[in-house]
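If it is no trouble, might I ask you for a protein's amino acid sequence along with its backbone structure tokens?
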Amino acid sequence: MRLALATEAASADRANEDFVGAIPNGVVVLDGAGYPPELQTGCRHSVAWYARTLGTSLLGTLGIEDGSLTDALARSIKAVASVHSSTCDLAHPGSPSAIVVALRRTNTTLEWLVLSDSVLVLDVDAAAEPIVITDERLDDVAADLRTHLTDHPSPSKAHGKERHRFQEALLQHRNKEDGYWVASTDSLAAEHALTGTMPINSVRAAAPLSDGASRLVDLFQLATWRQFMDILAADDPGELINQVRKAERTDPDGSRWPRSKATIGVAVYRIVQESLTNVIKHAAPAGCVVRVDRTDNAMEIEVTDDGRRAPTGHSPGHGLIGMRERVAVYGGEFTAGPLAGRGFRVHARLPLEGVPT
């Protein structure tokens, strides 16, 4: 088994708020969630300290195979909370936090856990394209809150003020049932992580990523996930980070690729991703056609397949509901339903006026 790790601070003058580590049977990636300096956090410790401390604890817990990854994360969150409960206000919504991806290998399976807007890419024998697992709840909350964030150029005083408002609003939705979940001070967050298993002999490669590393595909759209995995196979994670940084340097003010959590480009990507997931789950084996067109005033997405599905009359699944809600954020139009004879069609139209692409 080949293992390669890489992490890099966002800039030379900042501490690295990411953590990556491995033991013989497991890997963890944490991306510390930081906030602007003017926001109070209730904690004397830095985000980098939290990511490093939680990551180290989680690695140690992964070696114990008598519990689930959810249990391992919950125990680690609780252990780190006990370390600074006497010096910090753990009830403060701005306490340091982190997104988490964890993998654990057994003799027969690969277990995985994804919490918050981290990404796990699995290259498996049964699928032509890599399987991408990501927790979209933070993206969904951010899309509702960032209404005016892109109205002002960055950097500017107006943009900074609006970003401050945006970050404070996000904090109020953190670790709430109708919001999003991250690892912080409440071990209950672990129960809201996405989890699953894959037969170990079917997994060719696995790439746990922070949302910064995944930007090359899901934000910048400079590579497909297949190309992404090919980069990792041919080089190493350091080369991937180099390509992300190179793209960022060409767009320092975020005018081409806004860095706020949710953009219409991400929405398009998620709609296509979920549509293809539905084809694999409900219609495979089937032929599938994806069409994405941009006009002067809209993005149009159409995904059709010729597979056979279960009889109609079932309630729409979470995938279709999530796509409909994502389109509604942008005031767009969404339809989904069976085609005459056999097959299924998903169609979305997202207006471009006034939104970042």
